[in-house]
Write a structure and sequence with these properties.
8-stranded parallel beta sheet; 16 helices
């Protein structure tokens, strides 16, 4: 195996080692995937101002997210079917995050259950919630997360209706995979994945097992989501969820300032500017492009994070310079997980940390808390809509 120096190296290795249907599940977007691609290209368009002959000693990346000390402003995002990128994937990712001092967020649609992950780590993690018509099931999930000590609840607001991802349909995605001739041929070249999966008992949706017994493949899951994911979800629901949870609440999937304001009014302690990694509304703008308007609307009232398209420590620095309090990464750690398991997730975090540290220094700063628009080239970064015609002094 060649030396791994960047997230792209992990992606290429994961593509070789993870069965096609699960790799494509993670590395795809809705419809034409235009928003999926835009998430990355929008970051690439933002340019830094390089500074020289400044003191670069004693650099500091540590900060706080929701009052929690973190080693850098990065958290692992909730990702469905993480345990199909590698056996026991959620457990391995949570362990790597804990060692690195960054938050890990467990998805409702995880393979390892809330309790599985809690048994594997010594510090609290965050839990992501989807809201179903069956409110008893929602209440049960909230109570289970509270019971194991989860320290924040991440409510995903942009999956009331499931966006179509062509690759999943064409690959015939199932959990676990159906053993068709095409699948068997693919699995024959993925022996590491098969060997690890054969040694674990966790091969279906851990948080749903016992509640939705027939949700074991894409077809049955789709039927369940069609009948249970609540398209009438409203801000009033957020209020009772907040009351039931009675802890820090993050709303994920906010792209417009009006929705950000409603989220804060409903009790959100933070919002994540997110288009679901380009997996929902194809044709939406990039998350980083939506960040300035959301910050202008609620940045003084709540913490604002961003996800979507982050592939490097430079992207983290760009987001923080624009005003984000933290950045969530999804695909990068999934690449690491698929490539090398827990070691790969740790390597992903290490790569991002190193790139963030060096880039901060080359921009002339020693503390991530000092990163702001001054380190970005004027004209290369998005501005709030009402300031597009204004001159920004840096």
């Amino acid at each position: 195996m060649s030396t791994i120096t960047c997230i792209e190296d992990l992606r290429r290795l994961a593509k070789r080692r993870v069965p096609r249907m699960f790799y494509d599940y993670a590395d795809s977007g809705a419809w034409t995937e235009s928003t999926y691609r835009a998430n990355q290209t929008a970051f690439e368009a933002i340019k830094f101002r390089q500074r020289v002959m400044v003191d670069m000693d004693d650099r500091r990346l540590a900060t706080e997210m929701l009052g929690q000390q973190v080693s850098m402003p990065v958290a692992l995002a909730p990702t469905g079917l993480t345990g199909m990128q590698h056996a026991d994937g959620e457990i391995l990712a949570a362990r790597a995050a804990e060692k690195a001092g960054v938050p890990f967020t467990l998805s409702t649609m995880s393979i390892c259950s809330i309790e599985d992950v809690a048994e594997a780590v010594s510090k609290p993690f965050w839990f992501q919630l989807y809201v179903m018509r069956d409110r008893d099931f929602v209440i049960d999930l909230i109570d289970r997360a509270k019971a194991v000590g989860c320290s924040a609840l991440v409510l995903t607001a942009d999956l009331q209706i499931l966006g179509q991802r062509h690759k999943d349909l064409k690959n015939g995605l199932t959990v676990p995979p159906n053993l068709t001739p095409a699948t068997l041929l693919d699995l024959a070249t993925k022996w590491r994945w098969c060997f690890a999966m054969a040694r674990t008992k966790r091969r279906t949706f851990g948080n749903i097992a016992g509640h939705v017994k027939d949700a074991t493949d894409l077809s049955s899951l789709s039927k369940w989501t069609a009948s249970q994911f609540d398209p009438s979800l409203s801000w009033d629901d957020v209020k009772w969820i907040k009351a039931r949870w009675n802890g820090p609440l993050i709303i994920k999937g906010v792209m417009e300032p009006e929705d950000a304001e409603r989220a804060v009014d409903a009790g959100a302690d933070a919002v994540i500017v997110s288009n679901h990694g380009g997996r929902q509304l194809d044709g939406a703008c990039a998350s980083i492009e939506a960040l300035p308007d959301v910050l202008q609307a609620v940045g003084s009232r709540t913490e604002v994070y961003v996800d979507g398209g982050v592939r490097s420590g430079q992207d983290v620095l760009r987001a923080v310079a624009l005003g984000a309090r933290g950045v969530f990464i999804g695909r990068p750690f999934l690449y690491g997980l698929g490539a090398l398991g827990e070691e790969g997730v740790s390597r992903c975090i290490e790569i991002i940390r190193n790139e963030l540290d060096i880039s901060l220094a080359l921009c002339g700063l020693r503390d991530i808390a000092d990163a702001d628009l001054r380190i970005l080239k004027p004209g290369s970064y998005p501005l709030p809509a009402e300031k597009l015609d204004d001159e920004v002094s840096v």
